[in-house]
Design a protein that fits this description.
single chain; about 110 residues; mainly alpha; 4 helices
């Protein structure tokens, strides 16, 4: 990227507030690979899970149990569980952004 004569190659990371932030979520799923997108979404959810309240963790855990590995989940049930996770991600702010994006990608790939 060219920024006024300066060149940057690689990841650019901005941390917005918070404490105990660890790791970085990087989306590496192919647009055509629903299972890879699902795995990346689960990874993003796990990163976020460690930074939310106990109540939000319970919503996440219940939703993850509902969707399992995504293979045999009823589409309506999966959509409701992913919507619950995306709701938590939206409410927690910047740390939830990768989860919201990953959920949208999975829902589109799985026909939701």
């Amino acid at each position: 990227m060219n920024d006024g004569g300066n060149f940057h190659i690689g990841d650019a990371v901005t941390q917005i507030g918070g404490s105990g932030n660890t790791g970085i979520y990087k989306n590496q799923a192919s647009a055509a690979d629903p299972q890879a997108a699902f795995r990346d979404m689960i990874q993003a959810i796990q990163v976020m899970r460690g930074q939310v309240s106990a109540e939000d963790r319970q919503v996440i855990d219940d939703s993850l149990q509902t969707i399992g590995n995504g293979a045999n989940a009823d589409p309506g049930t999966m959509r409701r569980a992913l919507t619950a996770i995306a709701g938590v991600a939206t409410m927690v702010g910047q740390v939830g952004v990768p989860v919201v994006e990953a959920v949208r990608r999975v829902m589109a790939l799985f026909g939701g």
